[in-house]
Amino acid sequence: MIHKLLSILFPRRCHVCGRILVAQEDLLCVGCSLELPHNYSIEMAHNPIEELFMGRIPVVSAGALLTFRAETISQHIVHRIKYSGDLRLAKMMGTMIGHQLARSNRFDDCDMLLPVPLHKKKQRKRGYNQSEELCKGIATVFNRPIDTTSVQRTRNTSSQTHHSRIERVENMANVFAVIQPDALTGRHVLVVDDVVTTGATIESCCKAILQVPGTTVSIVTLASASKA
Ligand SMILES: [Zn+2]
Hints:
Blueprint: H1 2-9, H2 30-35, H3 48-53, E1 62-67, H4 73-83, H5 87-103, E2 112-115, H6 120-126, H7 130-141, E3 151-153, H8 165-172, E4 176-178, E5 188-196, H9 200-210, E6 216-224
Parallel strand pairs: 1-6, 2-5, 5-6
Antiparallel strand pairs: 3-4
Helix pairs in contact: 5-7, 8-9
Bound molecules: zinc ion.
Residues 14, 16-17, 19, 28-29, 31-32 line the site of zinc ion.
C-alpha cells in the first residue's frame, strides 16, 4: 500500500528519457534499453578497440560495451555518469560490462580491475571516479578485486577535446605513476575507463603499469568513440 502510494507520488523515471517506469523496469525504460548501441567487441577478438592500441602498447584483450555517438543515448549515459553523479546508472552499466566479460573467455586471466585514476583534485571536486563506479558493477558479476591505490594520476591535464591525436598523446605522457609496484608485479591488470576516443589516456596509464616487471594489461571501457 505504502509502496503504491509512494510510486504515485514519486514515480520512478527512466534515467535517460525521463519516462515513468513500470514495475519491471529498473533505471532504464524498455525503449532506452533497446536503443543501447551494443557492439559486442568485448566478446570479439581483433575488434576496433584492439586495433586502436596496436603498435602503441601490448594489450592482451580489449573491448567496449557500447559505441559512443554524439547526441544519442550513449552520450547521454556517459554524461550522466561523468558529470551528474548518477552512480546507480554507472553500477548498472558496469554490471552489463561484467556480464559480457564473464561470457567471453577472453578476459578470464585478468587478476584485478584497475579504474583509470582521476587526479586527486578532480576526484575531490567530482566526489567520485566514474571508472571506479563502473568497476563496482563489473565486480558484482566478474569477480575481481578493484585496485584504486597502486596507480596515481600525478598531473591534472586540461580538457583534451580540442587537441589532435598526437597532441593528446604528448599531453598525456607521464601523467600516471605507479606508487605500489608490488601490488602489480606479475599480474594481469584489466584497466577500466568510461570512454575511449584516441586512447591517449588509457595508453599512458597502461605504459605506467607495464613498467612494473611481469605485468600484462587488458582494457575495457563503457563506450568507444574510436573510428579505428
Ligand atoms: Zn527511457
